[in-house]
Amino acid sequence: MAIVGSGPAGYFTAQAFQNAQTDLMSFSIDMFERLPTPWGLVRSGVAPDHQKIKTVSKVFEKIAKTQNFRFFGNVEIGKDISLKELKDKYDVVILSTGASNGKKLGIPGENLKNSYTSAEFVSWYNSHPDFTNIDIDLSCDTAVLVGAGNVAIDIARILIKDPKEYKETDIADYALTKLTNSNIKKVIILARRGPEQASFTAIELREFLKFENIKVEIDYSLIENSLSRIANNEVTDKDIIANIKLMKQLLDKTVIDANKSLEIRFFCSPTEISGYDSVEQVKYVKKQCQKLEFNDTNKELAIKTGIIISAIGYEPDRLEGVSISKGKIDNIAGHIEQNLYTTGWAKRGSTGVIGTNKSDSLDVVNLIIAKLSKPKNTEDVTKLFKKIEYVIDQTGWEKINSAEIFAGQISNKPRVKIYDREVLIKIGSWLSK
Ligand code: NAP
Hints:
The longest helix has 17 residues. Strands 3-2-1-4-19-18 form a six-stranded mixed sheet, covered by helices on one side. The radius of gyration is 23 Å and the shape is globular. A hairpin with a 2-residue loop joins strand 16 and strand 17. It contains 15 helices and 19 strands. Bound molecules: NADP nicotinamide-adenine-dinucleotide phosphate. NADP nicotinamide-adenine-dinucleotide phosphate binds next to helix 7.
């Protein structure tokens, strides 16, 4: 089995194969990763102040240490090995490549300096080697986020929570310096639908209850309207009810020393970003809900700002020969074609939490096993590697992991992530043996 991508979906796919083994059926699993390091979003997506979520990496390491599992880091499918070569070599190839591109708004001005997608901004503060050099400017006082999902809530927290609270996390050092010197006092989230349609979850937003200096602002009448709909049993979904009640609690919270604020503007959709060469203003249109349809009104407003981040979901990377539509690889229950399958965000789009990948991957693995025929007998894949000396195997990754954890112990952090690709390769590649 070749699994492409070493995020949660990749590891849970490997685990499902490992658990399905019997006396008569065993699987050899090779996992390919284009970065020198594994763990996908657990390393470069989960917020630095959510360390507990990252403990799932212990499960990943257990999977990786199991017999018949090999990790090949710093190997990019489509560049170092073609997908066709992989499909020819293996009985089954599974694309667990996630969705690493932030969706774009498609409005004028989106390419101005200091306009980012969540994929860029989140990867930046999480030390992703491809995003360390972005020159993020936090010198304005108001930041605009677009989208009412958990990623927007993560980013809002990063932007206005006291940076001191990140000191003992694995946040990138350069990001912490920028955040410490940041002038941002207010974050405005533009949500194109209403409070009942928000896709963030109460567990994420609840963290704002404990911030003593951050005031949460939402049009009170919208929340009152939803509360009366709840009281009349017009809203019965327990997650929506939890969200609405929490928003009321946040609005009612007494904040004595509020020097920062998070404002969620519902029924607002951005129409244009403008500025000389960098973001200076975001125009948006008010929307209204009529018979469950959300339409633009003729009310246009604007916010003076120096930074906009769209957190409106993600799309998979392009891979030759694989078609993508509606934010996911075209597939039927995980099957793409012939011996090619997909799991995780690449399969279903950017929805669900880390745990969602466990049951989802198991379903696809069951489908694969049901369709298996006689195994192929081909020579080892490593013969295909065009830059074999730079491959990072499990032992190499463990060297990187130990170096990061050791550096963290000195500075009272869970780890200090290495983000220079060259350094990662030096520590972990076959060259260093
Ligand atoms: P999301 O939950 O899908 O939220 C995306 C938001 O963007 C929605 O409010 C959506 O509004 C809005 N949107 C989409 N297209 C838009 C457009 N063109 N203009 C304006 N708004 C637009 O996505 P996400 O926040 O990226 O999160 C992805 C997944 O990761 C989710 O399942 C999330 O729960 C998960 N996650 C979990 C955690 C955690 O558990 N700690 C943290 C981060 C992420 P509509 O609803 O109107 O489409």
